[in-house]
């Protein structure tokens, strides 16, 4: 069933008038006849609505900082916050030195009631001493949780004293959960400090290989980053650092010598990409390594940027080799997936990226959205000058960078940059909505009530979202694919990752499980009516 404005009004009619007015701004039915459709995003979730969002702490420690493997990440707060962000995203990491890989540990000050009353600074200082004695990490991060912000513990003073005592970098992040409206605020806070304290702290003045790049906004969930790096290194690129999947403090210090930054997840990392361009003159290129054609397009755009015929030749060789391996396998999965529909509501850029991969399987994405996006993630970066900052956004400190007098260097002459921007998405992201078809639904900050209503109306063949809502949907008789941690599968990036994704989606469809589950709408009559005494009610 297609959704129109009348149907949408019926869904929202269950809300109080003020709530209905608010939520309608967050839902768009794509109309190709309109040059631009404006959607509300990055505003507070209405109290009482069950959202899928996380908090600023989750975005800072759980998303951006957590995957750095040679760093001990301390959660200063109750144990529940530390446990919440502990390995929930399956950020894989490998290290040649096993004593410098702390990815599987959970460090928390485990604040109790007495610590809330009398303060937790001394407890935090003792914990840092223990960490240095036992683990000897390359750096330490301290992430604040809500109680810490409320009682006013001075994390900066504790971190500074620890640096002087132990001689390593100790970074503090005032990422209390209530800062900002979602985990997006935490991304921003983490990026600011990494830019200020880590990137550029290395001694390299030139890259150690040809075509040096950084991969930004890639978190190695299920091994995605390893698959992307395999392809890039086979072509001939030098991957300096990944921010932050399987990343390290030591590698990140020298990210400033790259000649190009690749941006995979625009939402979580665009802050760093822009600051690197301002400070060191390194352009950023929007890429998407989810899906076969998207991977091909990204690799070719990278070759265009560097403009080396040998690199272009090698790129096409690797693409041809990879396609020869995966295309015959993909065909068998397409036969099962062809003609089916998907409901894709995921954080970061995944709500956009996975639509292309679904399309390659012959599937159509009828609804898509994000948990914590900003308007530019939907409408593209052209809309940035029109976005007005509200009180919540002003709560996040801004880091203003200037060109580094010693290290700033234009990687590409300005004239050529302008020519390249006409061919490839340099310093640009067109947003999700541009690729969606007319009649399809775009929803920001989808809640549980709306999820159930849209599923009943659209009856998708598969639901791609997160852990918080997958089980409810499965009980409705619809397969659910968890795209935050891949349901213990993956990788899904690159050529081989696309095959793995196709295999998992196909298994979801052919599972006999769904024969034993009756969706709620199948218990309802096809037609409803009433009997009126005396015959025809209009006589």
UniProtKB/TrEMBL annotation:
Q: What class of enzyme is it?
A: oxidoreductase
Q: Which Pfam families match?
A: Oxidored_nitro (PF00148)
Q: What is its EC number?
A: 1.18.6.1
Where in this chain does the record put each Nitrogenase/oxidoreductase component domain?
55-507
What does this protein need as cofactor?
[8Fe-7S] cluster; [7Fe-Mo-9S-C-homocitryl] cluster
This protein's GO cellular component annotations are:
molybdenum-iron nitrogenase complex
* UniProt signal peptide: none
What keywords does the record list, in alphabetical order? ATP-binding, Iron, Iron-sulfur, Metal-binding, Molybdenum, Nitrogen fixation, Nucleotide-binding, Oxidoreductase
Q: How does it assemble?
A: Tetramer of two alpha and two beta chains. Forms complex with the iron protein (nitrogenase component 2).
Function, as annotated: This molybdenum-iron protein is part of the nitrogenase complex that catalyzes the key enzymatic reactions in nitrogen fixation.
Protein name listed in UniProt: Nitrogenase protein alpha chain
Q: Which organism is it from?
A: Desulforamulus ferrireducens
